[in-house]
Amino acid sequence: MSSIDEIRDARIKKLELLKKRGHEAYPAESKRELSLKEAAESFDELEKNKEVKWIAGRIMSIRGQGAIVFITLNDGTGTFQGLLKKDIIGDEKFDFFNEVFDIGDFIEIQGTFFTTKRGEKTLEVADWRMLSKSLRPLPEKWHGLVDIEERFRKRYLDILMNMELKELFIKKAKFWDATREFMKAKGFLEVETPTLETTTGGAEATPFKTHHNDYDLDVYLRISIGELWQKRLMAAGFPKTFEIGKAYRNEGTSPEHMQEFTNMEFYAAYTDYNDGMKLVRELYIDIAKKVFGTTKFTSKGYTFDLGDVWIKIDYAEEILKQTGIDIHKANEKEMEKKLKELAVEYDGDNKERLMDTLWKYCRKNISGPAFLINHPTLVAPLAKKNPDGKTVQRFQPMFAGSEVGNGYSELNDPIDQRERFEVQQKMIDKGDTEAMMADFEFVEMLEYGMPPCCGFGFGERMFAILVDKPLRETQLFPLMKPKQE
Q1: Keyword annotations for this protein (predicted)?
Q2: Is 353 within a domain?
Q3: CB of 29 closer than 8 Å to CB of 41
Q4: 13-43 pLDDT per residue, tens
Q5: Which own/partner contact pairs does 90-93 have at CB distance under 8 Å and 24+ positions apart?
Q6: 192: which residues sit within 8 A by CB, 6+ positions away?
Q7: Residue 68 half-sphere exposure, CB side, CA atoms within 13 Å?
Q8: 113 is in which domain, residue-wise?
């Protein structure tokens, strides 16, 4: 078997031969008149009228027998077969084709359409032209790229050789299309908010920090899809807004966590979290039907139906049921002791982090669909309190042992918001890198007045769970460390 370097050297010689014979190896223009999908769909008419057309694509296979060569092209819209016959295109063009073309090259061919004896739609080639000479061989057809790192690093080859993977990303595009269509149909205005912020808001996560040279100012990449900005729009008089965009969190990687990901957030004035739960259930079912044609899924060993009744699970009651810990009464030491008994690793010794870790232990036993409600006030600094004063009006859709969204009756009391920001700032001062930064300009906006509203966000984690794959597998180009030469 030849090495990559030997194959590359041989192909470079073919490239030089093309140039020597006066052929462009990388022309800017193409004569293509039909996509391969169009050629297949209009084949009967093309064959009947003996039309002469140019089609183009990447050569995925070459099969030769003496004076004939069959090639299979792929242009991203479909595949199509071409037939080169020496007695049709002449000795010189036929032989030159065999001298310079390889699997992986992009070519355009001109000819007439016919059906082979085996019933295959085919273009009988009268002329050909190189569009792009490949210098490296494609992966072996039946095995493709096997090494995981190589697959992510050379995603273009991974997708090219794996039709199922290509369909996954087409489905993901439909996932966001369905989301956008639903929101607009409900009267939401699509907006764009800043991705660079002087304080990050809307979530508890460690941000990425960078520097703005012109202002000589440190700024952060956003960790939410404009939560505090969209709430400013509620105060500005926009009744319903949403945004689909990128968020960035400088945290660990897991099957459900990435540092860069796509989320959607919406905000609706004069609504609360009960309204939000109704809308979100409708949204999720709509997405499932439009993208997958079903509401029933199996993922991570769980089976659930989004069309079922969504039960409501109380945060503290579920932890008490599963661990015996009453988070409203237990202190930090009692929580740490229980986590050690459960052999659960935890990071941070403040009450918020410990409660969150206990919950993460419990959630894996919930298949859903469900709404998690009545979170402690400490873990939701932007949500409106319940009458008990200990919990907030927050909801999180759940299925397959994971939260797949987050929403609140948004806090619009400026005095309460200031106090909660001050608590978060004290946590930051003690070294908690995930605590929420205080944004007192946002508090100033609240002092002018913001209507009651519900806000909600969800992201591509939901898509990954519905297709039962790790989040990294559902991203086109996940971040990779530079390749070591």
Answers
A1: Aminoacyl-tRNA synthetase, ATP-binding, Coiled coil, Ligase, Magnesium, Metal-binding, Nucleotide-binding
A2: no
A3: no
A4: 999 999 999 999 999 999 999 999 999 999 9
A5: 93/127, 93/128
A6: 243, 245
A7: 7
A8: 4-138
